[in-house]
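Note to self: keep these together.
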Amino acid sequence: MFLAEEAAKSTSTFSGFDIFVVLFTVVIAIGLIRLLGAKKKNPFAIGFGLVSLAVFVTLSAVMVMGWMGKL
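Structure:
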């Protein structure tokens, strides 16, 4: 049991998918800024972008907290 606890502590919580989550968050933020700055506004796209950005920012925050061991 002691060895299993030590093995669990030494494993990393970082995975290759984490980079994509951060990149998607940045891309969504850039897209939302462009939508807000457009002359012809699309309210559906702005709302969808806001919800998507909120989900991805939350996911990124939880992911970073997991890296730092705060979860």
